Amino acid sequence: MLDTEAAQVLRMPGQRGGDTLQEVLVTVGQQAELMNRIRMGLLSLDRILVYQAANAVRGPDSAKLRPAHAALQRDIQALEEHASFLSGRIGMTVDATMGMIGLMQNDRVRSLSVVAALFLPPTLIASIYGMNFEHMPILELEWGFHLALGMMVGSVVLTVLVLKWMKWD
C-alpha cells in the first residue's frame, strides 16, 4: 500500500489534486500509526524474551531453550530493522506529499501575485485622481479624465509586458 501511495504522489500529472494529496496524507498517516504500533509490539516481545531467557537459565531445560531464544531474538531484530526501513519510507512519502502540496500553494500564490501586480498601478492612479483636492492641475483639463484612464490601461499593459519578460505567466 505504501508503494501505491508513494507512486501516486510522485507521478501526479501537471494538475495536482489537493483532495488526492490530502487522501494520501491521511492514508500514510494511518500507515505510520500502524508501524508505530508494530514497533511497540516488537519492543515488548523483545523485553519479554530477554526476561524469559534470564529466568530460563535456572530451569532444567535451559540448554535446550538457548538456541530458540537466540533465534527469536534474531527474528525480532530483523523485524525491527525492517520496521525502521518502512518508517523511513513513510517519512519520505510524507515529505514528498508535503512538497507537492507546497508546489500547489506556490502556484496559487504566484497567480494571486500576478493579479495583484496587474491591479496595483491602476488602483494607485485612480486613488490619486480620486482625491478631493481643490487644486489639481489635470482635473481642470478637458482631456484629464481620458489621460487618467490611459495611464491606468498603460500601467496594466506595461505590467503584463514586464511579467511576460520575467516569464511569470
Automatic annotation (TrEMBL):
The chain crosses the membrane at residues 112-131, 143-163. It is found in: Cell membrane. GO terms for cellular component: plasma membrane. Keywords: Cell membrane, Ion transport, Magnesium, Membrane, Transmembrane, Transmembrane helix, Transport. GO terms for molecular function: cobalt ion transmembrane transporter activity; magnesium ion transmembrane transporter activity; nickel cation transmembrane transporter activity. It catalyses: Mg(2+)(in) = Mg(2+)(out). The keyword Nucleotide-binding does not apply. It is a multi-pass membrane protein. Belongs to the CorA metal ion transporter (MIT) (TC 1.A.35) family. Mediates influx of magnesium ions. Alternates between open and closed states. Activated by low cytoplasmic Mg(2+) levels. Inactive when cytoplasmic Mg(2+) levels are high. This is CorA-like Mg2+ transporter protein. It comes from Paracoccus lutimaris.
